[in-house]
């Protein structure tokens, strides 16, 4: 019988117990020991789930917030005396920053190396504690290379020194262990040969510990298979789902006799059931190369909801799905079939059905022509008619869309969802919220208005609920970071728009004011990035299907007198493949999908929003999206972002996020002016807008109102052309 191993099982709990416990502790509703007890209970359930299905699994994956920050603590980079110190590091005023983990929507806390860089030391042996406590399982660690690659503040030329220093600390951490699970997803990046050599040296140092290392790579294939084979490790985990090249490399180079191949054969990042037959066929082939094989998930299971059993989905769809617990079952099934027992297989793969394709959608996709992907006249001409129509002042002020989702708003939505509030009463409530916000924006003196997004819980799920071909779940929660969770919808069939989705609210908002109100949509790439997508048609086609729905929505906006539309694409960058060589292919469809979605009349202004600032290497791709205005993050980098645009050919309007909405601080006009001053060195003043970084959904009114007032004061000063922005008086 082949051994089964699984890792990364979600820590959230079916009823989000993880979130509830930690947040209760933050609100001082439970004590630190109660929190630890709750988390221990959750961990016991998690480990028991593994045990129910698979032979082996890691121990010590549980964390009170994030495993990257835990690793930093283990290595002595930070010191925490108690839980409050720990949470200060995670969510306090001076918390570490959050960044997306590889090309997923999980965010980790970025360890920051202050200078002088502290000496690493084995400050906390978390894996050893875990094995002492649970007695079974393979102690878990994030590897030194991945840890260092994902941290900031290390001078490039010192990287090697630090990696080797770290390897010594790792050797110490694992020296008391017999076996260890080490995650090294960073090994799937395109690495220069010098770094590959460094990885070898680092792992050779760790060999001194005499501990059996099981090394896991995932999310893509490893480019340097021969070198990887030379590492002194006992087992190598390869992703056979997202890393198709891995199989080709094994065919070419074989597999070392002295190592175990941990074959990642069930999908950790999408929800479709594994075809058991073809998984077994792959294993049969691999067994010709590898003497010892363990089967596993291809990437960590925390990108999946916990179990399909918690859902009330259409059975035809549910029968095609596999969440984290079902993946464990699949591993068991594959092992059993591999050993010759086919019981249960036919049933597993026959429970669901494919839905008929939608001929109307197919027809539209088939007839797409090049001209459907370009606006009818170039920006230089569009901008003239837009400006005539909108008559905006210099430095127009606006916001990104959402306004505070107060407890009242959330309560009403919950009441509506559970049927305690009628559709009519809910609509009335939403309209009241919109009307109040329009009045407020008038009082504040903003130039371009929004309706506030009070009717939306989540920018993807909201649209998923309105579109055909996309299902939403009841309990399919996934951690996005810390205790923040979201439910990715499931795109299972052709996507179409049975009815307008947002036109009522936007048109109502516009009816209340002569100022332009932005029509607010989530872009096709972001809808795809934050959903599970079907795998029977190319992702580009799914994107075009969604794009056509958005295009229809924009047509309806135009018919209702809406002059500006904003198509949000916050996931545009995150979705880019890990390997640069795959970028052209991705950006090609991503840019086209945006352009197809944002087909609007020349006089309609198309805006987009992205909430980050790592643009340096994708500015050209972004320019190809052919929007009229983009709003981006600029405050956390104090305007450094503008450097990326120097010397480029970027000629569109740009709204700099001069207020960091991720912080509760109220920025003064002077704080914000600093960023604008820097921007004016790069952009002509006619092209600059002023706005917050992102939506204001998570902020409080007490922060929103004074901050927007300051933003408008700044706009006034700028318009007066005060010679020194800093000292100008009103
Ligand atoms: N329009 C959205 C909002 O304001 C954008 C959110 C986002 O970029 N993540 O909430
Ligand atoms: Zn944003």
Give a written overview of the molecule:
The chain is built from 26 helices and 21 strands. The protein has an eight-stranded parallel beta sheet with strand order 1-10-9-8-7-6-5-2. It is globular. It has two domains: 160 residues, TIM Barrel (Alpha-Beta Barrel), CATH 3.20.20.210; 355 residues, TIM Barrel. The C terminus is likely disordered. Helix 17 runs antiparallel to helix 18 and helix 22 runs parallel beside helix 23. Strand 7, helix 9 and strand 8 form a beta-alpha-beta unit. By secondary structure, the protein is an alpha/beta fold. The chain binds glutamine and zinc ion (ZN).
Topology of helices and strands:
Layout lengths: L2 E2 L12 H10 L5 H22 L4 E2 L7 H8 L8 H9 L6 E3 L6 E3 L16 H9 L3 E5 L1 H7 L8 H16 L4 E5 L9 H15 L4 E5 L8 H6 L4 E5 L4 H10 L6 E7 L9 H11 L5 E6 L17 H4 L5 H15 L6 H6 L8 H8 L12 H12 L16 H11 L5 H22 L16 H6 L1 E4 L6 E4 L2 E3 L3 E7 L6 H9 L6 E5 L1 H6 L2 E2 L5 H21 L4 E5 L14 H15 L7 E5 L9 H5 L5 E5 L19 E7 L9 H12 L7 E5 L8 H20 L10
Parallel strand pairs: 1-10, 2-5, 5-6, 6-7, 7-8, 8-9, 9-10, 14-16, 15-17, 17-18, 18-19, 19-20, 20-21
Antiparallel strand pairs: 3-4, 11-14, 12-13
Helix pairs in contact: 1-2, 7-8, 11-13, 17-18, 22-23, 25-26
The structure holds glutamine and zinc ion.
């Amino acid at each position: 019988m082949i051994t089964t191993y699984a890792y990364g099982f979600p820590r959230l709990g079916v009823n989000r117990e993880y979130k509830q416990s930690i947040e209760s502790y933050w609100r001082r509703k439970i004590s630190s020991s109660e929190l630890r007890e709750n988390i221990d209970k959750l961990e016991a359930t998690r480990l028991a789930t593994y045990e129910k299905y698979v032979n082996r699994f890691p121990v010590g994956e549980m964390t009170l917030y994030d495993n990257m920050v835990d690793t930093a603590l283990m290595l002595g980079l930070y010191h925490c005396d108690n839980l409050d110190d720990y949470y200060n590091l995670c969510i306090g005023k001076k918390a570490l920053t959050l960044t997306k983990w590889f090309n997923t929507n999980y965010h980790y806390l970025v360890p920051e190396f202050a200078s002088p860089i502290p000496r690493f030391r084995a400050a906390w042996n978390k894996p050893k504690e875990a094995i002492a406590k649970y007695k079974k399982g393979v102690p878990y660690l994030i590897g030194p290379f991945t840890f260092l690659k994902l941290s900031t503040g290390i001078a490039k030329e010192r990287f090697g020194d630090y990696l080797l220093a770290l390897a010594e600390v790792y050797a110490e951490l694992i020296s008391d262990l017999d076996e260890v699970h080490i995650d090294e997803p960073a090994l799937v990046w395109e690495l220069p040969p010098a770094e590959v050599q460094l990885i070898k040296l680092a792992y050779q140092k760790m060999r001194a510990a005499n501990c059996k290392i099981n090394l896991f790579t995932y999310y893509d294939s490893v480019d340097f298979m021969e070198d990887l084979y030379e590492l002194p490790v006992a087992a190598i985990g390869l992703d056979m789902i997202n890393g198709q090249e891995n199989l080709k490399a094994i065919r070419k180079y074989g597999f070392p006799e002295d190592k175990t191949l941990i074959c990642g054969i069930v999908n950790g990042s999408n929800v479709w059931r594994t075809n058991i037959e073809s998984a077994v066929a792959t294993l049969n082939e691999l067994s010709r190369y590898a003497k010892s094989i363990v089967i596993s998930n291809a990437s960590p299971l925390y990108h999946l909801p916990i179990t399909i059993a918690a859902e009330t989905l259409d059975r035809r769809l549910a029968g095609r799905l596999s969440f984290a617990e079902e993946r464990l079952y699949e591993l068991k099934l594959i092992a059993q079939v591999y050993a010759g027992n086919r019981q249960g297989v036919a049933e597993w793969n026959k429970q669901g059905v494919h839905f008929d394709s939608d001929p109307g959608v197919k027809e539209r996709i088939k007839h797409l022509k090049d001209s459907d992907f370009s606006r009818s006249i170039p920006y230089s001409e569009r901008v003239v008619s837009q400006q005539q129509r909108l008559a905006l002042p210099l430095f127009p002020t606006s916001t990104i869309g959402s306004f505070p989702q107060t407890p009242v708003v959330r309560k009403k939505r919950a009441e509506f969802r559970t049927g305690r509030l009628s559709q009519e009463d809910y609509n009335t409530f939403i309209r009241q919220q919109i009307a109040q916000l329009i009045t407020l924006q008038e009082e504040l003196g903003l130039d371009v208005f929004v309706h506030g997004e009070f009717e939306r819980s989540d920018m993807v799920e909201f649209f998923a609920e309105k579109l055909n071909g996309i299902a939403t779940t009841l309990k399919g929660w996934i951690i996005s970071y810390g205790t923040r969770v979201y439910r990715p919808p499931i795109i299972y069939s052709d996507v179409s728009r049975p009815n307008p989705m947002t036109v009522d609210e936007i048109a109502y908002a516009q009816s209340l004011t002569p100022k332009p109100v932005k029509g607010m949509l989530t872009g096709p790439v972001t809808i795809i990035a934050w959903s599970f997508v079907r795998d029977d048609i190319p992702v580009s086609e799914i994107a075009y299907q969604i794009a056509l729905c958005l295009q229809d929505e924009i047509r309806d906006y135009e018919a209702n007198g809406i002059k500006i539309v904003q198509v949000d694409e916050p996931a545009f960058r995150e979705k880019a493949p890990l390997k640069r060589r795959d970028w052209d292919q991705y950006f090609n469809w991503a840019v086209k999908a945006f352009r197809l979605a944002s087909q609007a009349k020349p006089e309609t202004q198309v805006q987009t929003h992205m909430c980050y600032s790592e643009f340096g290497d994708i500015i050209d791709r972004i320019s190809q999206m052919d929007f009229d205005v983009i709003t981006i993050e600029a405050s956390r980098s104090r305007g450094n972002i503008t450097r990326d645009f120097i010397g480029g050919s970027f000629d569109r309007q740009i709204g700099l996020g001069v207020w960091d909405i991720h912080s509760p601080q109220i920025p003064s006009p002077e704080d914000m002016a600093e960023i604008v001053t820097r921007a004016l060195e790069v952009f002509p003043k006619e092209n600059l807008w002023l706005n917050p970084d992102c939506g204001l959904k998570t902020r409080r009114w007490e922060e929103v109102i004074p901050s927007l007032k300051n933003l408008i004061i700044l706009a006034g000063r700028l318009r007066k052309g005060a010679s020194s922005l800093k000292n100008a008086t009103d």
